[in-house]
Amino acid sequence: MANNEWRQGWFLAAQRCESPFFNTRPNGEVSLLVIHNISLPAGCFGTPYIEDLFLGKLDCAADPSFADLKGLEVSAHFLIRRDGAVLQFVSCDQRAWHAGLSSFEGRSGCNDFSIGIELEGTDEVDFEPVQYERLTELTSKLMRHYPGISRDRIVGHSDIAPGRKTDPGPHFDWRSYLASLAEL
Hints:
It is built from four helices and twelve strands, in the order βββββαββββββαβαα. The chain has helices at 49-55, 129-145, 157-160, 174-182, and strands at 6-7, 10-11, 15-16, 22-24, 32-38, 78-80, 86-88, 94-96, 103-104, 107-108, 114-120, 154-156. It is globular, with a radius of gyration of 15 Å. The mean pLDDT is 96.
């Protein structure tokens, strides 16, 4: 474990934006990585609204589509912006609230043992090359720091919440992403 890269579950190379929406992992286990996509409003990129949502500061009057988000308490560990900026909202040692109703290998409550990475994007558009670069770098560092995460324990939100979620979506290039991890 590289002490110069991590401090108490915080990745030091990421911009730290502390969310109030987290709690303690029941047994401290970190053994799953969940890839998501998000944009607010849907299909709009580069807005401050994703951070506002994860920080509990979203002005739900700012866009009509935000009405359903009023009072929502949600977070992810990381967000990778379209320009490659990496933000961290919750220590990886804590439980972020990103997966919702979920199950992996017959085990429910994936938030208990997973790390959530949001990619700024949608199901309808390709992700940026720099997002894949940052995702690969971050995944590699997470796998070294949290050895319970292996290539076969990296999934999409759609894999752990089928029928309820579709992200990261059909434009996410799983083959290229997983191949880039094998090259490290």
